[in-house]
TrEMBL record:
Lineage: Eukaryota, Metazoa, Chordata, Craniata, Vertebrata
Organism this protein belongs to: Serilophus lunatus (silver-breasted broadbill)
Subcellular location: Endoplasmic reticulum membrane
Domain of life: Eukaryota
Name under which the protein is recorded: Phosphatidylethanolamine N-methyltransferase
Entry membrane topology: Multi-pass membrane protein
Molecular-function annotations in GO: phosphatidyl-N-methylethanolamine N-methyltransferase activity; phosphatidylethanolamine N-methyltransferase activity
InterPro entries registered for this protein in UniProt: PEMT/MFAP, Phopholipid_MeTrfase
Residues annotated as transmembrane: 12-35, 55-73, 94-119, 167-185
Length: 204
């Protein structure tokens, strides 16, 4: 059972009306919305492939923009934590090193996901018509689905613990919710893309 009193005490440290906190929430929510809208528009119109001359060039451009947006998100996340109070009981070596370990695991998932998928596989290449030959089942995909998203969430969780930040924990929850919503939209759509590919192969 959730200890409501403990949760209320924890989030009593968070000023959700703080400008930095609001900016961080908006940046977290904006990123998956942005890349899903852009990628779906590309899949429907092929407009960006035409503008950049090839699907690969367009995908690399989108990937670069996503990376920049992720850096902005991380900066906003960190600044929001700095502007809000720490939880005194967590401001200790044990919490710091626990957060460091969680961030390390998250980083492992993110990097290994990127190496397994490649750049275009990571940055929505299938929406640009750059399809993989077969589903990736190697590490870390043999451990959990969407390891890139969950790894990124773990990094933010660890970062929050390292700073003993209730605001960071709440923002991490926003990250998890944003990614969960993104997965609900991306998963079925990606499956449909590959089903269309299989139908095309069978019809040849």
């Amino acid at each position: 059972q959730v200890d409501v009193a403990a949760m209320a005490r924890l989030f009593g440290y968070v000023d959700v009306t703080d400008t930095g906190f609001i900016v961080a929430v908006l940046s977290i929510a904006f990123n998956p919305l942005f890349w899903n809208v852009v990628a779906r528009w590309e899949h429907k119109t092929r407009m960006f492939s035409q503008v950049f001359g090839s699907p690969h060039a367009a995908c690399y451009c989108l990937g670069a923009v996503i990376l920049v947006l992720n850096c902005v998100r991380s900066h906003c996340f960190t600044e929001a934590m700095k502007s809000q109070p720490k939880l005194e009981g967590w401001d200790c070596h044990w919490t710091y090193y626990s957060g460091l370990a969680i961030s390390a695991v998250g980083t492992l998932f993110v990097i290994s996901s990127f190496l397994a998928l490649g750049f275009t596989g990571t940055f929505l290449g299938d929406y640009f018509g750059i399809l993989m030959e077969e589903k990736v089942t190697s590490f870390p995909f043999n451990i959990l689905d969407n390891p890139m998203y969950w790894g990124s969430t773990a990094i933010y969780l660890g970062w929050s613990l390292m700073h003993a930040s209730p605001a960071g924990l709440l923002l991490t929850a926003v990250v998890a919710i944003s990614y969960t919503i993104a997965m609900l939209y991306e998963g079925p759509f990606t499956e449909e893309i590959y089903q269309q590919k299989q139908k095309g192969v069978k019809n040849k």
